[in-house]
Amino acid sequence: VGIVPTENKPRILLMGLRRSGKSSIQKVVFHKMSPNETLFLESTNKIVKDDISNSSFVQFQIWDFPGQIDFFDPTFDSEMIFGGTGALIFVIDAQDDYMEALAKLHMTVTRAYKVNPDIKFEVFIHKVDGLSDDHKIETQRDIHQRANDDLADAGLENLHLSFYLTSIYDHSIFEAFSKVVQKLIPQLPILENLLNILISNSGIEKAFLFDVVSKIYIATDSSPVDMQSYELCCDMLDVVIDISCIYGMGEDPEANPFDKESSSLIKLNNATVLYLREVNKYLALVCILREDSFEKQGIIDYNFHCFRQAIQEVFEVRTKATTQQHGAAAM
Ligand code: GDP
Protein backbone atom coordinates (compact mmCIF):
# COMPACT_ATOMS: atom_id res chain seq x y z
CA VAL A 1 0.00 0.00 0.00
CA GLY A 2 1.58 3.25 -1.12
CA ILE A 3 1.65 6.53 0.68
CA VAL A 4 -1.71 8.19 0.40
CA PRO A 5 -1.86 11.93 1.09
CA THR A 6 -3.57 12.68 4.38
CA GLU A 7 -6.27 14.73 2.68
CA ASN A 8 -7.50 11.66 0.81
CA LYS A 9 -7.89 9.47 3.86
CA PRO A 10 -11.39 8.83 5.00
CA ARG A 11 -11.74 10.52 8.35
CA ILE A 12 -13.77 9.28 11.28
CA LEU A 13 -14.97 11.70 13.91
CA LEU A 14 -15.70 10.46 17.38
CA MET A 15 -18.07 12.78 19.25
CA GLY A 16 -20.33 12.72 22.26
CA LEU A 17 -20.84 14.23 25.69
CA ARG A 18 -18.05 14.41 28.22
CA ARG A 19 -17.49 11.06 30.02
CA SER A 20 -19.49 9.15 27.42
CA GLY A 21 -16.45 6.95 26.78
CA LYS A 22 -14.74 8.41 23.70
CA SER A 23 -11.15 8.30 24.93
CA SER A 24 -11.68 4.84 26.32
CA ILE A 25 -12.94 3.54 22.97
CA GLN A 26 -10.00 5.04 21.17
CA LYS A 27 -7.47 3.63 23.64
CA VAL A 28 -8.97 0.16 23.75
CA VAL A 29 -9.43 -0.26 20.00
CA PHE A 30 -6.30 1.43 18.67
CA HIS A 31 -3.82 1.39 21.51
CA LYS A 32 -4.44 -1.99 23.15
CA MET A 33 -5.28 -0.50 26.50
CA SER A 34 -7.12 -2.93 28.75
CA PRO A 35 -10.69 -1.80 29.59
CA ASN A 36 -9.98 -1.53 33.33
CA GLU A 37 -7.19 0.97 32.77
CA THR A 38 -9.65 3.43 31.20
CA LEU A 39 -11.03 4.11 34.68
CA PHE A 40 -8.02 6.37 35.17
CA LEU A 41 -8.18 8.26 31.87
CA GLU A 42 -8.37 11.99 32.14
CA SER A 43 -11.41 13.47 30.47
CA THR A 44 -10.90 14.95 27.03
CA ASN A 45 -11.05 18.71 26.82
CA LYS A 46 -9.56 19.40 23.46
CA ILE A 47 -9.79 18.16 19.90
CA VAL A 48 -7.42 15.24 19.63
CA LYS A 49 -6.25 14.12 16.22
CA ASP A 50 -5.10 10.58 16.56
CA ASP A 51 -3.42 9.57 13.35
CA ILE A 52 -2.97 5.83 13.40
CA SER A 53 -2.33 5.43 9.69
CA ASN A 54 1.32 4.50 10.05
CA SER A 55 0.60 1.31 11.93
CA SER A 56 -2.81 0.39 10.63
CA PHE A 57 -4.34 -0.44 7.27
CA VAL A 58 -7.33 1.58 8.26
CA GLN A 59 -6.26 5.03 7.26
CA PHE A 60 -8.21 7.48 9.26
CA GLN A 61 -8.02 10.00 12.01
CA ILE A 62 -10.06 10.16 15.12
CA TRP A 63 -11.02 13.58 16.26
CA ASP A 64 -12.06 13.40 19.82
CA PHE A 65 -14.19 16.40 20.63
CA PRO A 66 -14.86 17.60 24.11
CA GLY A 67 -18.48 17.13 25.10
CA GLN A 68 -19.23 20.78 25.67
CA ILE A 69 -18.06 22.18 22.31
CA ASP A 70 -20.28 24.98 21.05
CA PHE A 71 -21.22 24.76 17.37
CA PHE A 72 -22.41 28.32 17.33
CA ASP A 73 -19.04 29.58 18.43
CA PRO A 74 -17.76 31.44 15.33
CA THR A 75 -14.31 29.91 15.78
CA PHE A 76 -15.74 26.43 15.25
CA ASP A 77 -14.99 25.73 11.60
CA SER A 78 -17.64 23.18 10.68
CA GLU A 79 -16.78 23.31 6.96
CA MET A 80 -13.29 22.21 7.72
CA ILE A 81 -14.27 19.63 10.31
CA PHE A 82 -17.24 17.97 8.61
CA GLY A 83 -16.16 18.61 5.02
CA GLY A 84 -13.67 15.76 4.76
CA THR A 85 -15.36 13.41 7.18
CA GLY A 86 -16.36 9.89 6.10
CA ALA A 87 -18.18 8.82 9.25
CA LEU A 88 -19.31 10.56 12.39
CA ILE A 89 -19.57 8.30 15.42
CA PHE A 90 -21.69 9.75 18.19
CA VAL A 91 -21.24 8.03 21.57
CA ILE A 92 -24.17 7.93 24.02
CA ASP A 93 -23.68 6.69 27.58
CA ALA A 94 -26.52 4.17 28.03
CA GLN A 95 -25.94 3.97 31.79
CA ASP A 96 -26.73 7.64 32.19
CA ASP A 97 -29.80 9.76 31.47
CA TYR A 98 -29.50 10.25 27.71
CA MET A 99 -31.84 13.17 27.06
CA GLU A 100 -29.03 15.71 26.91
CA ALA A 101 -27.01 13.39 24.68
CA LEU A 102 -29.97 13.06 22.29
CA ALA A 103 -30.32 16.82 22.03
CA LYS A 104 -26.62 17.09 21.30
CA LEU A 105 -26.80 14.27 18.76
CA HIS A 106 -29.59 16.06 16.93
CA MET A 107 -27.71 19.34 16.88
CA THR A 108 -24.53 17.66 15.71
CA VAL A 109 -25.97 15.59 12.88
CA THR A 110 -28.13 18.38 11.47
CA ARG A 111 -25.15 20.70 11.45
CA ALA A 112 -22.85 18.10 9.90
CA TYR A 113 -25.45 17.05 7.31
CA LYS A 114 -25.79 20.64 6.08
CA VAL A 115 -22.07 20.84 5.48
CA ASN A 116 -21.64 17.33 4.09
CA PRO A 117 -24.67 15.14 3.29
CA ASP A 118 -22.41 12.19 2.43
CA ILE A 119 -21.31 11.60 6.02
CA LYS A 120 -22.31 8.23 7.50
CA PHE A 121 -23.91 8.82 10.89
CA GLU A 122 -23.18 6.09 13.42
CA VAL A 123 -24.60 6.10 16.94
CA PHE A 124 -22.83 4.00 19.57
CA ILE A 125 -25.18 3.23 22.46
CA HIS A 126 -22.29 2.67 24.79
CA LYS A 127 -21.48 1.07 28.19
CA VAL A 128 -24.23 -1.51 27.72
CA ASP A 129 -22.23 -3.99 29.83
CA GLY A 130 -24.18 -2.64 32.80
CA LEU A 131 -27.59 -3.39 31.24
CA SER A 132 -29.67 -6.57 31.19
CA ASP A 133 -30.55 -7.99 27.76
CA ASP A 134 -34.11 -6.70 27.96
CA HIS A 135 -32.92 -3.30 29.05
CA LYS A 136 -30.46 -3.17 26.15
CA ILE A 137 -33.17 -3.79 23.58
CA GLU A 138 -35.52 -1.32 25.22
CA THR A 139 -32.81 1.37 25.37
CA GLN A 140 -31.90 0.88 21.73
CA ARG A 141 -35.55 1.04 20.69
CA ASP A 142 -36.13 4.19 22.72
CA ILE A 143 -33.02 6.01 21.48
CA HIS A 144 -33.71 4.96 17.89
CA GLN A 145 -37.29 6.22 18.09
CA ARG A 146 -36.53 9.53 19.76
CA ALA A 147 -33.59 10.34 17.47
CA ASN A 148 -35.60 9.57 14.34
CA ASP A 149 -38.66 11.46 15.57
CA ASP A 150 -36.49 14.52 16.12
CA LEU A 151 -35.09 14.23 12.60
CA ALA A 152 -38.55 13.76 11.09
CA ASP A 153 -39.80 16.83 12.96
CA ALA A 154 -36.92 18.78 11.45
CA GLY A 155 -37.83 17.50 7.96
CA LEU A 156 -34.65 15.46 7.63
CA GLU A 157 -36.04 12.07 6.57
CA ASN A 158 -33.10 11.55 4.23
CA LEU A 159 -30.62 11.63 7.03
CA HIS A 160 -29.96 8.06 8.15
CA LEU A 161 -28.58 7.03 11.51
CA SER A 162 -27.21 3.56 12.26
CA PHE A 163 -27.24 2.25 15.83
CA TYR A 164 -24.90 -0.16 17.62
CA LEU A 165 -24.87 -1.49 21.18
CA THR A 166 -21.28 -1.26 22.40
CA SER A 167 -19.04 -1.85 25.39
CA ILE A 168 -15.27 -1.82 25.81
CA TYR A 169 -15.58 -4.84 28.12
CA ASP A 170 -16.39 -7.26 25.30
CA HIS A 171 -15.93 -7.53 21.53
CA SER A 172 -18.94 -5.40 20.65
CA ILE A 173 -16.86 -2.25 20.27
CA PHE A 174 -14.56 -3.98 17.75
CA GLU A 175 -17.51 -5.38 15.86
CA ALA A 176 -19.20 -1.96 15.67
CA PHE A 177 -15.99 -0.28 14.53
CA SER A 178 -15.57 -2.99 11.90
CA LYS A 179 -18.97 -2.17 10.43
CA VAL A 180 -18.25 1.56 10.47
CA VAL A 181 -14.88 1.13 8.77
CA GLN A 182 -16.25 -1.29 6.17
CA LYS A 183 -18.67 1.36 4.91
CA LEU A 184 -15.65 3.54 4.12
CA ILE A 185 -13.72 0.95 2.12
CA PRO A 186 -14.59 1.34 -1.56
CA GLN A 187 -13.07 -2.06 -2.41
CA LEU A 188 -15.34 -3.93 0.03
CA PRO A 189 -17.42 -5.79 -2.58
CA ILE A 190 -14.24 -7.03 -4.26
CA LEU A 191 -12.77 -8.16 -0.94
CA GLU A 192 -15.96 -9.99 0.00
CA ASN A 193 -16.05 -11.66 -3.36
CA LEU A 194 -12.44 -12.81 -3.03
CA LEU A 195 -13.19 -14.20 0.43
CA ASN A 196 -16.25 -16.05 -0.90
CA ILE A 197 -14.18 -17.63 -3.64
CA LEU A 198 -11.46 -18.57 -1.18
CA ILE A 199 -13.74 -20.27 1.34
CA SER A 200 -15.89 -22.13 -1.16
CA ASN A 201 -12.82 -23.60 -2.86
CA SER A 202 -11.02 -24.50 0.35
CA GLY A 203 -13.70 -26.03 2.59
CA ILE A 204 -13.42 -23.09 5.02
CA GLU A 205 -16.47 -22.19 7.11
CA LYS A 206 -15.74 -18.58 7.96
CA ALA A 207 -12.94 -16.15 7.10
CA PHE A 208 -12.13 -12.70 8.42
CA LEU A 209 -9.66 -10.23 6.94
CA PHE A 210 -8.24 -8.39 9.94
CA ASP A 211 -6.45 -5.13 10.43
CA VAL A 212 -3.84 -6.60 12.76
CA VAL A 213 -3.23 -3.56 14.96
CA SER A 214 -6.85 -2.74 15.77
CA LYS A 215 -8.52 -6.17 15.41
CA ILE A 216 -11.09 -4.50 13.21
CA TYR A 217 -12.18 -6.88 10.44
CA ILE A 218 -12.21 -4.97 7.21
CA ALA A 219 -14.06 -7.72 5.34
CA THR A 220 -15.53 -11.18 5.74
CA ASP A 221 -17.26 -13.68 3.43
CA SER A 222 -21.01 -13.31 3.02
CA SER A 223 -22.09 -16.02 5.48
CA PRO A 224 -23.54 -14.46 8.64
CA VAL A 225 -21.14 -13.35 11.37
CA ASP A 226 -21.73 -14.82 14.79
CA MET A 227 -20.06 -13.03 17.67
CA GLN A 228 -18.45 -16.18 19.04
CA SER A 229 -16.55 -16.90 15.84
CA TYR A 230 -15.38 -13.32 15.67
CA GLU A 231 -14.23 -13.41 19.30
CA LEU A 232 -12.42 -16.66 18.71
CA CYS A 233 -10.54 -15.15 15.76
CA CYS A 234 -9.73 -11.97 17.74
CA ASP A 235 -8.33 -14.07 20.57
CA MET A 236 -6.22 -16.05 18.15
CA LEU A 237 -4.83 -12.86 16.66
CA ASP A 238 -3.89 -11.67 20.17
CA VAL A 239 -2.11 -14.92 20.94
CA VAL A 240 -0.15 -14.89 17.69
CA ILE A 241 0.89 -11.25 18.07
CA ASP A 242 1.96 -11.78 21.69
CA ILE A 243 4.02 -14.83 20.81
CA SER A 244 5.56 -13.08 17.79
CA CYS A 245 6.50 -10.05 19.86
CA ILE A 246 8.08 -12.15 22.58
CA TYR A 247 9.89 -14.74 20.47
CA GLY A 248 9.93 -13.32 16.94
CA MET A 249 12.06 -10.22 17.34
CA GLY A 250 15.46 -11.66 16.30
CA GLU A 251 18.58 -9.49 15.98
CA ASP A 252 17.08 -6.34 14.55
CA PRO A 253 14.94 -4.52 17.14
CA GLU A 254 13.31 -2.46 14.34
CA ALA A 255 12.18 -5.56 12.46
CA ASN A 256 8.47 -6.26 12.30
CA PRO A 257 7.76 -9.45 14.26
CA PHE A 258 4.69 -9.96 12.12
CA ASP A 259 5.84 -10.71 8.59
CA LYS A 260 5.30 -12.73 5.40
CA GLU A 261 6.13 -15.98 7.12
CA SER A 262 3.66 -15.40 9.95
CA SER A 263 1.12 -18.18 10.16
CA SER A 264 -0.44 -20.16 12.93
CA LEU A 265 -2.66 -23.16 13.43
CA ILE A 266 -4.76 -23.87 16.50
CA LYS A 267 -6.75 -27.11 16.82
CA LEU A 268 -9.70 -26.92 19.18
CA ASN A 269 -11.14 -29.94 20.96
CA ASN A 270 -14.39 -29.81 18.98
CA ALA A 271 -12.79 -30.88 15.68
CA THR A 272 -12.45 -27.23 14.60
CA VAL A 273 -9.29 -25.59 13.32
CA LEU A 274 -8.28 -21.92 13.42
CA TYR A 275 -5.81 -20.96 10.72
CA LEU A 276 -4.06 -17.58 10.47
CA ARG A 277 -1.95 -16.28 7.61
CA GLU A 278 -0.27 -12.95 7.09
CA VAL A 279 -1.59 -11.12 4.00
CA ASN A 280 0.51 -7.96 4.06
CA LYS A 281 2.13 -5.58 6.52
CA TYR A 282 -1.25 -4.61 8.00
CA LEU A 283 -3.62 -7.45 7.22
CA ALA A 284 -4.08 -11.02 8.34
CA LEU A 285 -6.55 -13.68 7.29
CA VAL A 286 -8.08 -15.79 10.05
CA CYS A 287 -10.19 -18.80 9.06
CA ILE A 288 -12.38 -21.29 10.90
CA LEU A 289 -12.73 -24.76 9.39
CA ARG A 290 -13.48 -28.38 10.21
CA GLU A 291 -10.50 -30.52 11.09
CA ASP A 292 -11.15 -32.92 8.19
CA SER A 293 -11.19 -30.03 5.70
CA PHE A 294 -7.74 -29.11 6.90
CA GLU A 295 -6.38 -32.47 5.71
CA LYS A 296 -6.12 -30.80 2.32
CA GLN A 297 -3.80 -28.09 3.61
CA GLY A 298 -1.93 -28.02 0.29
CA ILE A 299 -5.05 -26.84 -1.52
CA ILE A 300 -5.83 -24.29 1.17
CA ASP A 301 -2.32 -22.88 1.03
CA TYR A 302 -2.39 -22.74 -2.75
CA ASN A 303 -5.75 -20.93 -2.70
CA PHE A 304 -4.46 -18.59 -0.04
CA HIS A 305 -1.48 -17.76 -2.22
CA CYS A 306 -3.85 -16.76 -5.06
CA PHE A 307 -5.95 -14.79 -2.59
CA ARG A 308 -2.95 -12.85 -1.30
CA GLN A 309 -1.91 -12.07 -4.88
CA ALA A 310 -5.38 -10.76 -5.69
CA ILE A 311 -5.51 -8.59 -2.57
CA GLN A 312 -2.18 -7.07 -3.54
CA GLU A 313 -3.53 -6.20 -6.97
CA VAL A 314 -6.70 -4.67 -5.54
CA PHE A 315 -4.72 -2.28 -3.38
CA GLU A 316 -2.12 -1.51 -6.04
CA VAL A 317 -4.91 -0.30 -8.27
CA ARG A 318 -6.14 1.83 -5.42
CA THR A 319 -2.73 3.42 -4.90
CA LYS A 320 -2.35 4.16 -8.60
CA ALA A 321 -5.83 5.63 -8.83
CA THR A 322 -5.16 7.85 -5.84
CA THR A 323 -1.87 9.03 -7.28
CA GLN A 324 -3.51 9.84 -10.61
CA GLN A 325 -6.29 11.69 -8.90
CA HIS A 326 -3.77 13.63 -6.92
CA GLY A 327 -1.72 14.34 -10.04
CA ALA A 328 -4.80 15.62 -11.82
CA ALA A 329 -5.69 17.85 -8.92
CA ALA A 330 -2.20 19.33 -8.98
CA MET A 331 -2.43 20.33 -12.66
P1 GDP B 1 -14.70 10.80 27.38
O1 GDP B 1 -14.75 12.01 28.24
O2 GDP B 1 -15.88 10.72 26.46
O3 GDP B 1 -13.40 10.64 26.64
O4 GDP B 1 -14.90 9.55 28.37
P2 GDP B 1 -13.80 8.56 28.98
O5 GDP B 1 -13.21 7.72 27.91
O6 GDP B 1 -12.86 9.34 29.82
O7 GDP B 1 -14.71 7.57 29.86
C1 GDP B 1 -15.40 7.99 31.01
C2 GDP B 1 -15.58 6.79 31.94
O8 GDP B 1 -16.42 5.80 31.32
C3 GDP B 1 -14.28 6.09 32.30
O9 GDP B 1 -14.27 5.90 33.70
C4 GDP B 1 -14.36 4.75 31.59
O10 GDP B 1 -13.72 3.71 32.30
C5 GDP B 1 -15.85 4.52 31.48
N1 GDP B 1 -16.21 3.68 30.32
C6 GDP B 1 -15.85 3.87 29.03
N2 GDP B 1 -16.37 2.90 28.25
C7 GDP B 1 -17.07 2.08 29.06
C8 GDP B 1 -17.87 0.88 28.84
O11 GDP B 1 -18.01 0.36 27.73
N3 GDP B 1 -18.46 0.33 29.94
C9 GDP B 1 -18.33 0.87 31.19
N4 GDP B 1 -18.97 0.24 32.19
N5 GDP B 1 -17.61 1.97 31.42
C10 GDP B 1 -16.98 2.59 30.40
TrEMBL record:
Keyword hit for RNA-binding: no
Keyword GTP-binding tagged: yes
InterPro entries, per the entry: Gtr1_RagA, P-loop_NTPase, RagC/D
Catalytic reactions of this protein: GTP + H2O = GDP + phosphate + H(+)
Entry keyword set: Cytoplasm, GTP-binding, Hydrolase, Lysosome, Membrane, Nucleotide-binding, Nucleus
GO biological process: cellular response to amino acid starvation; negative regulation of autophagy; positive regulation of TORC1 signaling; response to amino acid
Main location: cytoplasm
A cellular component term, taken from the record's GO annotations: Gtr1-Gtr2 GTPase complex
Listed SUPFAM superfamilies: P-loop containing nucleoside triphosphate hydrolases (SSF52540)
CDD domains, per database record: RagC_like
Subcellular locations according to the entry: Cytoplasm; Lysosome membrane; Nucleus
Gene Ontology molecular function terms on file: enzyme binding; GDP binding; GTP binding; GTPase activity; molecular adaptor activity; protein dimerization activity
Membership in a protein family: Belongs to the GTR/RAG GTP-binding protein family.
Name of the protein this chain belongs to: Ras-related GTP-binding protein C
Species of origin: Lingula anatina (Brachiopod)
